[in-house]
Amino acid sequence: MEIVDEEVINYELIEDLLTLLMLEPENNTMILAPDGNEDNPVDSGSVLVFLPGIGEIRVLNEILKSNIHFGDERRFDIIPMHSTLSPKDQKRAFVTPRPGCRKIVLATNICETSVTIADCVCERQIVQNKRSSTSTLVKNWCSRASAKQRAGRAGRVQPGICCKLYSSRTANTVMKKQSTPELQRVPLEEGAQMILHLYLPAPQPPSVESVDNALRVLEEVGAIAPIVSGSNKSKSESITPLGQHLAKLPVHVRLGKMLIFGSLFGVLDVVLTVASSLSAKSPFAANIDNSPQVKAAHKAICHPTSDFLTSCKVWDAYMAAMDISPSNARKFCAKNFLNRTAFIEIGEMRKQFFQLLSSIGFIDRSIKTLDDMASSSCNTNNLKEEIVNAAICAGLYPNIAHITKVPGDTSFALYSKSEKLSFHKSSTNFNKSLSTEWILFQEKFATSKTFVSTTSVIQPFCLLLFGNSVVKHLERKVVIDEWIELDMAAQVAVMFRELKYALAKGIENRMESNADAKFEVIIDGICRLLTIEANAKL
């Protein structure tokens, strides 16, 4: 086994094992029934195969369907099971197959704890668990406890067997006994902010690296400010007025800041949809079998330069169908391969975010419902994409990338500081020639390359408003956060620096419940400048 790379999934081994157990049971002398059960437990019932992700599910799905035996739909029903699939496709796993037909369910860990397939009698484990963050996408072996729990999927309602396709050496030396505690493996921005806000101790000590990353994000967002004191220049953190507002919102700090600026800039309805879409399951349902047809349908309803505004566009289309009738909305989702359950979830989150903003004073108390908000000052700029983009940028900055033309070539390269990035094929900006140099993105993740998925074009004034600029008067340049260079008059950069300070002061006054008429004038001036810049680009 030492020469076998267990990190690589052996699809042929899975196919051979299925063949042995389901097609040639008379040749099986090694994989025996549980003690006390003389019958073959896989003569009937379904088979559940655990795989790391939807990519591996696609590969095995194609392999089995091309098999002369497993591809026979009269004998076998091969069913992908993944969280991005539509509820209609997921429900296939729970339907009892017709007589003479067996189900083979290809699933991720969605079936580990939250799903029980009643007739499952046999399970194959390829125990590699994908975990993603904003910086990387890796495969890790799950814990032995998790593997034991997955084994429970087989034989829950009738005798069954579990085949684990990894060696005892991997189980004993590579796989952990228990999963890492959540506080030690997830982003800590919300927890760190709450601890600073309420002066609470952390129940389990996370790693120093996790804490540092959380504090860096909070500082980037403007939720905390560093304090350097003493002769040894020791560093501590204090929560800012913006951070005090964000601590009252039980959402990720980036989304919280986005919502607050959506209210301030008069684009709240759109930003509620964007924030809800980023928090909920994607409405764009995956489909294993009709991928080209699905892509064509999704492309027809995409925004040309923004994945964020694509969410708004498809939400508006769904609500227009819903206004006619729920039945029409269901037909709209089916026609465009969209997940209706995701829309319901987005709708609920819009209501929750609205109520949260109202509770901390960023929505006038006279506005009681989302319908009341439609014609209020919260939505005066809803149709101006440049202002919507600014509110989104408020939350996601400094997630910025620069489009650089490759010398002597028509292609371009994408960089964030010195890190080379690539548009993921799921982004609306993939393989497009864009009219701007700057891209805003939600997250980046590394596989074969470092990709950005949810993206939008962004204009320089937004960078000036939310970054820390240094003006080079003689060169007529502005340098933002030590790497973003803009050719711009010094007066413009200085003006935005003052506007940024005035914004922070206005938010502080909101914290102290002080009315400030000048603040509304400043907000209006910022919005006018953003619109002037957008019109100049036309």
List the helices and strands and how they pair.
Layout: H1 11-23, E1 46-50, H2 54-66, E2 76-81, H3 87-91, E3 102-107, H4 110-113, E4 120-125, E5 129-132, E6 137-140, H5 144-151, E7 161-164, H6 168-173, H7 189-198, H8 208-221, E8 224-229, E9 234-239, H9 241-247, H10 253-264, H11 268-279, H12 291-300, H13 307-324, H14 326-335, H15 340-359, H16 370-373, H17 385-396, E10 400-405, E11 412-416, E12 419-423, E13 438-441, E14 444-446, E15 450-452, E16 455-457, H18 460-466, E17 469-472, E18 477-480, E19 484-487, H19 490-511, H20 517-537
Parallel strand pairs: 1-3, 1-4, 2-3, 4-7, 12-15
Antiparallel strand pairs: 5-6, 8-9, 10-11, 10-13, 11-12, 13-16, 14-15, 17-18, 18-19
Describe it for me?
It contains 20 helices and 19 strands. It has helices at residues 11-23, 54-66, 87-91, 110-113, 144-151, 168-173, 189-198, 208-221, 241-247, 253-264, 268-279, 291-300, 307-324, 326-335, 340-359, 370-373, 385-396, 460-466, 490-511, 517-537; strands at residues 46-50, 76-81, 102-107, 120-125, 129-132, 137-140, 161-164, 224-229, 234-239, 400-405, 412-416, 419-423, 438-441, 444-446, 450-452, 455-457, 469-472, 477-480, 484-487. A seven-stranded mixed beta sheet has the order 14-15-12-11-10-13-16. Strands 2-3-1-4-7 form a five-stranded parallel beta sheet, sandwiched between helices. Strand 14 and strand 15 form a beta hairpin. It is elongated and about 85 Å long. Mean pLDDT is 81; it is low at 121-137.
Q: Average the pLDDT over all residues and give the rounded result.
A: 81
Derived from helix and strand composition plus strand pairing, the structural class reads: alpha/beta
Sketch the major β-sheet.
7 strands, mixed
State the distance separating the first and last CA atoms. 63 Å
Overall form: elongated
CA gyration radius, whole angstroms: 27 Å
Number of β-strand runs:
19
User: How many helical elements?
Assistant: 20
- Which ranges are low-confidence, i.e. pLDDT below 50, for 5 or more consecutive residues? 121-137
- The share of residues in helices is 40-55%
Main sheet strand line-up: 14-15-12-11-10-13-16
**Relative strand content:** 15-25%
